[in-house]
């Protein structure tokens, strides 16, 4: 288990508890009471830390190396029913953007999402979850296929942003993202978006237009990352914590601003501390929202989605 800087008090107590239990096993000393005291202190410390997280700490949790990624969710939710589909039929197959058909119960869904790597080799293979234009065009191709066969779309967002390299710009990165946003607003099937980690910039928006947009508790969604914002405003990364607060990028901020529809609770300590519980929660949320959306006709679906996004940012002074 890896610990973030603000989680070190938890690590110390867990180490103490481990040592206490070892002493009890290796000697005749009764350490039950001591262990119980440490357990109580550990539980109180966890509650104190995780109930009062700053915006920057939530950003750190969203990037936790043990946090589940898109394929983890898909494999847990769909089991062996998932069939990955490849390629944009123009340039190639972007490994940072994955997609395919899978089932929850008897209902088929088109799953699309950014995928990060687990180690140095897979991070390079997945391009750190930063999709190229062909990734967004692949996503759009799959969405159109879903529309053709009347299959709902589920998008998992977890990206530090679209790939900013010159070759991506040459192949039309901005146009690909803009095209996806346009097409998603008028797609005639339900779209459920779940932000499972980082939701940064246009890279997130390229698959982020939905009838229902859900955010896991310890994720963030913003036009720019705190580090990049800090480097632009203060010419240094040192002010990333201030930038994170100012950007209003956490799930409660997004809900307050009416930019998302629901916050999905995570186990205490983050999604990685109890993966099975997190997967089950997300699976249930997808099913519940689809049951609600399938009652709408394609015309009602599109009109409601259009109205939702048209009303964002409206200010009555």
Summarize this structure briefly.
With 317 residues, the protein is α/β, with parallel strands linked by helices. It has helices at residues 8-26, 32-50, 55-62, 70-78, 120-125, 133-148, 166-170, 173-185, 201-205, 226-234, 240-247, 251-256, 275-293, 298-310, and strands at 83-84, 97-104, 107-114, 153-159, 191-200, 212-216, 220-222, 262-264. The radius of gyration is 21 Å and the shape is globular.
Explain this structure.
Helix content is 49%, strand content 15%. The relative contact order is 0.12. The protein has helices at 8-26, 32-50, 55-62, 70-78, 120-125, 133-148, 166-170, 173-185, 201-205, 226-234, 240-247, 251-256, 275-293, 298-310; strands spanning 83-84, 97-104, 107-114, 153-159, 191-200, 212-216, 220-222, 262-264. Strands 1, 2, 3, 4, 5, 6, 7 and 8 form an eight-stranded mixed sheet that branches. It is built from 14 helices and eight strands. Strand 2 and strand 3 (107-114) form a beta hairpin. Helix 10 (226-234) packs across helix 11 (240-247). With 317 residues, the protein is α/β, with parallel strands linked by helices. The N and C termini lie far apart (50 Å). The longest helix has 19 residues, at 8-26. It is globular and about 70 Å long.
